[in-house]
Amino acid sequence: MKVALAQVNPTVGEIEGNAARVLDHIEQARSAGAQLIVFPELVVFGYPPKDLVLRKDLVRKNVAAVERIASKCTPITAVVGYIQPDPSGEGKGNFNAAAVCADGVIQATYAKMLLPTYDVFDETRYFNAGTEVQTFLLATGKDQVCAGLTICEDLWNDRQFEGRRVYGIDPVERNVAAGADLLINLSASPYRAGVQQEREPLFAAQIRARGVTLVYVNQVGGNDDLIFDGASLVLGAKGEVLARAKAFAEDLVIVDLAKPRGARVETYPDRVGSIREALVLGMRDYIRKCGFEKVVIGLSGGIDSAVTAALAVEAVGPERVQGVAMPSRFSSSHSVEDARQLAEDLGIDFMIVPIEGVHRAMEEAVTPHFPVATRDTFTTTEENIQARIRGNILMALSNKLGLLLVTTGNKSELAVGYCTLYGDMCGGLAVLSDVPKTVVYELARHINESAGYPRIPQRTIAKVPSAELRENQTDQDTLPPYDILDAILERYVEREQAVDDIVGEGFDRKIVEQVARMVDRSEYKRKQAPVGLKVTSRAFGTGRRMPIAARHR
Amino acid sequence: MKVALAQVNPTVGEIEGNAARVLDHIEQARSAGAQLIVFPELVVFGYPPKDLVLRKDLVRKNVAAVERIASKCTPITAVVGYIQPDPSGEGKGNFNAAAVCADGVIQATYAKMLLPTYDVFDETRYFNAGTEVQTFLLATGKDQVCAGLTICEDLWNDRQFEGRRVYGIDPVERNVAAGADLLINLSASPYRAGVQQEREPLFAAQIRARGVTLVYVNQVGGNDDLIFDGASLVLGAKGEVLARAKAFAEDLVIVDLAKPRGARVETYPDRVGSIREALVLGMRDYIRKCGFEKVVIGLSGGIDSAVTAALAVEAVGPERVQGVAMPSRFSSSHSVEDARQLAEDLGIDFMIVPIEGVHRAMEEAVTPHFPVATRDTFTTTEENIQARIRGNILMALSNKLGLLLVTTGNKSELAVGYCTLYGDMCGGLAVLSDVPKTVVYELARHINESAGYPRIPQRTIAKVPSAELRENQTDQDTLPPYDILDAILERYVEREQAVDDIVGEGFDRKIVEQVARMVDRSEYKRKQAPVGLKVTSRAFGTGRRMPIAARHR
């Protein structure tokens, strides 16, 4: 039996377009002789649908789309993810469901049993949990296969959450008990660094014990903060990889389960490579799905903006990236030079908009309103003024030229609030907001190594990091060295460790307390940050929900 | 038996401080001869605790605090809301629990059964659902009372959600079956206009059928976007109100259940009055709990900033409010006059910071980078530049003087994106972001009527609304009349109605489509909006989660 893994990239809410994409893949799979084609979770609606689930007209439209898709399913069987309204007709909620479409109709449906509510997931907000397994038979020559359905989290049921709920239900076991020898999983499983190393052993362990084959089809593409990495799989009954689709790209892989040897097995990129590809895909899709043609990026000559610009060029091409340098009285001579050099290396448009005139006018406007004693003191107030002038300039270019402004701040800065709200935080998409500074350096080296030349200027990588918002400033005037800062942030932010526990691991108490205090005090800035691409297990944004007017130290 | 309703105002995460407040109320109740004292849901941690629940050190601290509280409970019984870690010790999650503290120890605990996951609530993200009722006996003279415990949503179990999950579990029924004749409910039930008219009949219906007495204790105070209105209750077995605590203020009400006639029954304010008090409390608590002393507000001479400033004065007093007018070349002569008049009426500090110098400097800086053909065209780009200069000025004052910048935009504007990101949207708290423009007018009249004089200048109320960002501009150049706009927004945003359904109610299709398009296109702005005080059933913010890079029209 030939199975097609349709790893597609839907846009959230764009039901007509997503359905057309599904139909196109069914046609391709049928031409290739596939008997079964499997799509990702909620492919018709796009994942995550968020509060669009509450719009009944859209849910109705998605049901109609699945019925239309089903009408084209012959002689092929398609398994399609969609939102299923309460079949009782009483309007008591929706299910995150899979439709088995064959012989021109929806022959069966399955509702996801395990609804995740951790990290970025809010599935009990939107869905009722299913309670019944659903298997279906596929004739294959003189034999037949019994296929069982699962959706995403259903396969992660044995995962241990420290201090959190575990499910106590095993959909895999129940499918096997119902006679399934082929397990199908429709997923929309977001990327984070290391996820693939977790997924494949977990899936293998799930099926090895039961002697069933797994067909896992994951969504691909960026939807706001989430990047879906694809890498759909067929695992044999011993847990061995029989097929793997591309990571970070649409794909259609067809596997003959009777003789799977020849199936395509794509390589999943290494850690830094996968972060890079994730950011490029996330940026490309955000730009495209928001309807922008071009992006604008402030280039400071520093490493964050250089890496962001290099990734933007990979995402949409150099002709669609506008670099802008905005030197001030505090800018070093090399900052504009390095920005210009970068723009040349990348082949992007470059303009220089000096801020001195506006800076002087702002000082004249506001300084008389400062208390006399503070007028000569240079504080963060004076630093922020400059960053906000730059924000205004970039937004004016964005507005006038129709460009998406992309912000360049990294996760370390955003964590401790070493950034200016309405200044360098301006923009529609934060590309590096989940990338710690130490990993920004790794990305820069990765980019230069794969290019075979210093695409990002060597001086940009080598220079001491500075915001250049006052004379002879460096980041380390204010922050601990980045390797220490990032190690503390990983523990405090990603792992939710207490200060005492982090100190217990050998970090200096004063530094840990300073970092924790800076993180806690910056919640209000992050509340107003743009959407940021998620590449770790815990990004700022929808997966981390902190109170602001709170005191817990 | 005397019961004390301890309607306190905790700060999220401030466990020591909250526990001290609990102990203080226990002491007061004991002195007054109360046998039982009831506190709100999660009073020790503060509600909503959000992702601080994931911090094990804080959960441990909250358990220790309850044990300390229990050690002081004699001869009084206290029912205290807290986070209870999995009692099995296996670390499989936490419960939203109530501890019955008596004779110096925690004698029993109850775990909330119904965990809300709609609107602003994410309780399955944080808690396991309880499965068992918990009653306890209280000796009263020669008789005894059997008290049953419920927490917030447990009492809302018969609520119908259109298109959403219903619970299928009735904790009230189960308490009655277990012999309860007194029903206790610990709540953290957020305010929204009309909620009180919904609560009391619902509670009455719950207990009337069962012939039990209800003691309902609600949290009071603002925590970020949520405002808890208190108004704790004792309802008699026929559903009649025996006691009602103050709305929007801390309170301790003691009721003798044997002869409840003399108990205090406070009046709940009318609709506009309650919105006003909610905003004042929400603002006061946000300012206080964030540690600010003073606020700064940009005064345009228009109604939104006037109402915001008037409410700020009610919240923290005139000496702690700084008004700033920032006239431009497009400001009408009356705009500064009206702002000055308002500042005089309110008795607040007032300063004028003209933006013309900075405006000119910005034009000189950016215009040469615009395409030649567009340099003379006045578009939203040129409008936004002015708003962002004002944002920069206000933030400079905020930073230098340590003031919290409060934004003044209303819900109608924010809904359709008639506001400038990083401009008039700058600030730490959006006071009116859930108040439709038509209700802003109602608030202005309410303020003036209760003052007995035009505290908000009559001309500010009477003038045609204008952003004054170009020559002779009015809001209605761009937007439908506010009464029509607000009626459409209520249907599209609050009720999630489809465009066709709204048109079916008699609205003009072109206008409805225009409004829906503007709402959908402004998600990116709202993503970066400050915390806004919630006063309707559906505010922008945590209770409305929309994708940005989505297409559904």
Features of this protein?
553 residues; 3 domains; 21 strands; Rossmann fold; 19% strand; homodimer; elongated; alpha/beta
Shape of chain A: elongated
Multimer state? homodimer
Largest interface between protein chains, with number of residues from each side: A-B, 99 and 99 residues
Give the end-to-end Cα distance of chain A, rounded to a whole number of Å: 61 Å
CATH architecture of the largest domain in chain A: 4-Layer Sandwich
**Low-confidence regions of chain A:** none
The CATH topology of the largest domain in chain A is given as: Nitrilase/N-carbamoyl-D-aminoacid amidohydrolase
How much of the residues of chain A is beta strand, in percent? Answer: 15-25%
Q: What is the name of the CATH class of the largest domain in chain A? A: Alpha Beta
Radius of gyration of chain A: 26 Å
Determine the fraction of residues in helical runs of chain A and give it as a percent range: 25-40%
Instruction: Report the sheet with the most strands of chain A, covering strand number, pairing sense and barrel closure.
Output: 7 strands, mixed
CATH superfamily of the largest domain in chain A: Carbon-nitrogen hydrolase
- Number of separate strands of chain A: 21
Structural class of chain A: alpha/beta
